[in-house]
Give the backbone structure.
Amino acid sequence: MSKGTRKLTGFLWAMLLAIISFFVIYIFFQDVSLKAFGVSMKHPEKIGQIVSDAVKNTTDKVAGAVSEAVDKVVDKTADKAAEMVASSLEESLDPEKLAESVDLEGVDLENVSGAAE
């Protein structure tokens, strides 16, 4: 057996012993568990409160992050759409292109301007 394997095996045995010791103290010596670990089977409301606080905080953080990400995406999309609309309007209202697309042959411009007055 190599030195690294012995170290890993020793570590795993120590972890197993620590886990078993915790549960023995937690189940059979509840006063010691409350003093040493801060939790015991006699006071399950503390565990429930800790878990509910952790769930609430995590939910709030995730909701905030998702909301921020969605806001950024919406802002970028709106900016890009506004740019596209502005550029297409500039193209369509270009006087040269507008004059090319409108056929003014046969239209009496003097009467048109007089009718507007």
